[in-house]
Amino acid sequence: ENFLYMLNGKKPTPAMTKAMDVCLVLHADHGFNNSTFTARVVSSSLTDIYSVLVAAIGALNGPLHGGANVQVLPMLQEIG
């Protein structure tokens, strides 16, 4: 709740606070994400750092990874 207050400058609603709590729990429970996994797999082949980063960025670019959390905010606003 305090984080949202510092972010927006006003007291968040109970629904906003609950949504933030759930998001933080889900992120903590998720382990490492798709781009991190991709970077680990590619780097295990002992390739150069540029190939590792390009692969990780490529994995992050997909709408089910990098774009998924971006779509949550409009959905929460629509729900109200």
Topology overview:
Blueprint: H1 2-8, H2 14-29, H3 34-43, H4 49-60, H5 72-79
Describe the structure.
The protein has helices at 2-8, 14-29, 34-43, 49-60, 72-79. The protein is built from 5 helices and no strands. By secondary structure, it is mainly α.
Percent of residues in helices: 55-70%
Give the mean pLDDT: 86
Number of helices: 5
Question: Using DSSP, what is the number of strands?
Answer: 0
Give the structural class: mainly alpha
Quaternary assembly? single chain
Shape: elongated
Q: Outline the low-pLDDT stretches.
A: none
H/E order of the elements? HHHHH
- Radius of gyration over all CA atoms, rounded: 17 Å
Strand content: under 5%
| Major sheet characteristics | none
Terminal-residue CA separation: 17 Å
Keywords:
80 residues; mainly alpha; 5 helices
Task: Provide a compact summary of the structure.
By secondary structure, the protein is mainly alpha-helical. The protein has 5 helices and no strands. Helix 3 (34-43) runs antiparallel to helix 4 (49-60).
